[in-house]
Structure formats: C-alpha cells, structure tokens
Amino acid sequence: MAKSSASMANIYTLDGKVPLGKSVPFGLQHVLAMFVANIAPIMIVTSTCGLSPQETASLIQTAMIIAGIGTLVQLFAVWKIGAKLPIVMGISFTFVSIFCYVGAQWGYEAIIGAVIVGGIVEGLLGFFAKYWRKIISPIVAACVVTAIGFSLLSVGANSFAGGSGAADFGSAQNWILGTITLVSCIVFNIFAKGNLKQLAVLFGLVVGYIIALCMNKVDLSALQDVSIIALPKILPYKPVFNLSAIISVIMIFLVSATETIGDTSAMTSTVLGREATDEEISGSLACDGFVSSFSALFGCMPITSFSQNVGLLAMTKVINRFTIATGAGIMIIAGVFPAVGAVLATLPEAVLGGCTIMMFGNIVISGLQMIGACGYTQRNITIAALSLSVGLGFTQVPDMFAIFPDIIRTIFAENCVAVVFLAAIILNLVIPKDKNV
Length: 437
Hints:
The termini are far apart. It is built from 18 helices and two strands. By secondary structure, the protein is mainly alpha-helical. It has a two-stranded antiparallel ribbon. It has helices at 2-9, 20-49, 53-76, 96-106, 108-126, 129-135, 138-160, 172-191, 200-214, 243-272, 278-297, 307-316, 321-336, 338-345, 349-374, 378-394, 406-412, 416-430; strands at 89-91, 303-305. The protein has one domain (7-430).
C-alpha cells in the first residue's frame, strides 16, 4: 500500500514511475484540454485553401500523430532537440492568419514549402537561444501574444458566420449554431468545477455538433469509404518554395519562438519554481522548429507548445513526464484511426466559430495579463502602446504600404503580428532600460 502511494506521489515529480492505469486519466486530461485547439487551425486554413473534406480529415489525423510525436520529443529529447520538460505540443494558431493569406495567394503547397524552410530556421535558432533570449524580453512576448489574439478575432468571426465564401454566409442558421455553441461553452465554464473548466470548449463543440445534426447542417460525405486504420502519407502535397511566402512564414516562426520561450519560462517558473535554463529553452525551440518541418513533410502545419496545457500543469501540479507521455500516446493512437479525423472534418464552420471566438478572446486576455505582469513602467507602456497601435492600426489600412516593394507588402501589409513583433523588438532595443521613459 505504501509503495502504491509512493508511485502516485511521483505524478508530482518530473521523473519517477507511475502505474499506467493511474497515469492514463491525467494524460487524457491534457489531450482533452488541447483537443479542439489542435484541430481548429487545420479546419480554418484548409477551408480557406479550398481543400476537400477528405483532405481535411486526413490532415486532422496527421495532426494528432505529429502532436503526439512532438510532445514525446519535448518530454525525452532526441540529441539536443527537446527540453526534457512536460511540454504538450500541438498545431499552432499563431500561423493561421498568415496561412490564410499565403494559401489564398499561392495555394496550400506554398504553405508546405514555407513551413519546411521556416521550421529549419527556428530549429537552428534554438541552438543559439541564449542570444535570442536577450532580444526577446517579456514585454515583447506579451505584445506579440496580444497581437496574435486580436489577429484571430476576424478569423473566428468568419467561421461563426459560416466560413469565408460559404453560400449561406451570415445566415440565420449559422448565427443560431454559433450562438448555441458559444453559450454552451460559457455556461459550462461557469458551472464546471476545478479542472473540468478546461473542457468548456470541447463541451460546446459537442453540443453545437448535435444541434447541427438536428438542423441537417452536417455534411457526412467525408465518412464514406473510411478505412479502419491508416498512416499518414509522406509529401501528399508537393512543396512550392515561394520566396514571399517563405519570408512571411519565417517571420511568424520567430513570433512562435517568442511564444515558446514564454511558455517554457512560465512552466518552469510556476510549476518547478525556478528559471528555465538555456539548454531547456534551446531544446524547446529546436523541437518546435524541426518537428514543424517534419510535420510539413506529411502535409501538416507547424506545431508549438500549448499555453493552455501550461496552465493545466500549474493548476494540477501533475508534471511527471511518463504521465504526460501517456497523453501523447493517446494522440498518436487516435491519429491512426481515420474515422476520428473524418468525423471531426464534418464539423460545421459555425460550430467551430462558436468555439474559437471564445478561445481567441482568451488569447487576447492572456496577452494583456502578460503585459500587466511585466509592470506598468513608462518604458513598458511605451513599447506596448506603440507596437500595438502601429501593428493593429497600419495593417487595417493596407494601402498605406503601397510605396514599398511587393515582398514588404506581402509580409507586413495585412499581417499585424509581424508588424507588432518587429516594432516591439526595435523599441525594446532602442528605449534605454535604465531610464523610466
């Protein structure tokens, strides 16, 4: 009995043996906390790029497998790739805005080519993390996260209304579906206890899907001829290496690196009670980058650390690597069964919008909380106010970039995250740190 208690106590330590039966529920909790956020970016981007429901289903399946593999690499590391920390990986929302633009301009193949190159750049950058950390201060990361949240609000609104280009865009049925889904998320979040609050978005998705079935708004064509077991195909899309797309996506990979530094630092600070080491930051960034390039080889989008799972770690204090690894195993197993991806691919855009609009709002609030945590010195206020006003303001008037070359317009004209990122870095380097200005 004492031995069993000791084993269970190990769930609160980084290493140590935990019985499989005891670790699975905690691992499953991490999967459920990030489940919707892991598939939503794919559904949004593939819809914009005009991919078929069957292709979307296949990519969702691949995403679950890649997220599981990426999580295992972060947990246990391969050479210098991986932080050896309980970091859960998943498909990143950070890239959604730029991918919707790149996909509409040059097609999904250009996204794949850009991710292959951008992932390698971030992976190599990870090996020089100690220098990168000096440039990316907490206030820069906070501004970037806030900008990401704001940039995604219009994406969520488009989905809420039925998806860009939909014949019934803005119809009463889509308004009803989106509203019911959103209200379900809110009600669950209000009345759920403790860790169950993490499942509010998943609950809203289920309720919205059931209502959509009753309204005959679910297209079940993707379920036809679904095989029982299947593995991802390598290079299902031939990469197109478009220079403008590559530079644009590399810029957002740098933004993603900023987020990863923040997530890794937040996790070690709140859960382990110490600062993240250079080796941990380096391994975390290398995993982000190289596994993202690996993901693109199978036609999938980049992966990164998931902030909501960092929050879950802080709440539960369950940091055992083996326990988190069971969650990664569940993701990989789920990805092997195509029926899972096929069912998720039938999710109506309005239901997805009802879920994601709440998630995107939370990203905005998280960014604002990060700004607050940095302290309201005049220096931080200046960096945040100016970078956000320039980034969010200028990109709402893209014609003002008309005097610049095409490649500059492609990267910055409608990409507020890239503008905020660049402005925040410049201001952070220029404004003296030893003066309250």
